Amino acid sequence: MRGHYVDVPDGYLYYEQHGDCGPDVVLLNGGLADTRMWDSTIAWLAKSARVTTWDYRDNGLSSASFAPYDEIADLLAVLDAAEVSRAVLVGSSDGGRRALAFAHRHPERVAKVCALGPSFGEFPEPSPAEETARVVMRNHFAEITDLLETEGVPAAAAHDIDGWCPQVTEADRRLLTGLAVANSRILVMEEAHGQELDPPIKARFAELAVPVHVLVGKHDFQGTQLWAQRLAAQAPNATLSILPHADHMPMYSAPAAFREWITHHAS
Fold first, then answer.
1. 161 with 249: CB under 8 angstroms?
2. Helix 153-164 and helix 128-150: axis angle, to 10°?
3. Virtual torsion, Cα 27, 30, 36, 38, nearest 10 deg
4. Backbone angles phi, psi at 6, to 5 degrees
């Protein structure tokens, strides 16, 4: 399969399409990953759907960013180039945030959003439980920063994957760590350049006009689980599923349950 590129202001984006029948499904990567994180998913999903994957700026085969850019406009450019008029968006981690922000601005292009362990950072007006969970996350990120300074990118990437993905096999741990190393530019950037809604989507769940299906693993960080609960409670048309044996990457930690869930919700 040969990939494609689409030009965007100050850069370019890489995307792939797999399958030629069924509904359009667009997969959005986790932050420290690229299109390769979906290989095991594409192997079965492309048999019943036309699947589009793509790399954000600073990830995979897309261009690096050096100034602010519009994340939502980037996804729109990919959909237009791939001739996808309306799709199910499946977003993992930060990809869930991006999918929801896009759905807010362009609901006519989105059939539904499947948000997998969606990540949004700090909670607006956090509850005591949410604040406690964020303390754990801040400590994790501080450990990553320390490892970057003392042992370098490989050690920091391995520690990050260990924190997010305690349930994956050793082979998958090495795969995900390799992806994190390959996409480590975003680890070392002083600030991210991508911009979404203003105010951001995390403060606007109640405004979403499309169906939202939320999936979170029982072994994910507590902060992610609480974000999943907040999203499911505030979005007008939402469901929440918790996989008991999954972590932040359910396609690796609980592949059979993940496949069943996607087959049901992304159709």
1. no
2. 150
3. -40
4. -130, 135
Beta bridge partners of 114: 90, 213
DSSP bridge partners of 14: 5
122-126 contacts at long range (C-beta below 8 A, 24 or more positions apart): 123/202, 123/226, 123/227, 123/230, 124/202, 124/203
**Each residue's pLDDT tens digit, 41-92:** 999 999 999 999 999 999 999 999 999 999 999 999 999 999 999 999 999 9
**Whether this model's pTM surpasses 0.90:** yes
State how far the alpha carbon of 238 is from the alpha carbons of 200, 205, 222, 226, 229, in Å: 19, 10, 20, 15, 10
Q: What share of the chain is helix, strand, coil (3-state, %, to 5)?
A: 45, 20, 35
Q: What is the rounded distance in angstroms from the CA atom of residue 94 to the CA atom of residue 116?
A: 9
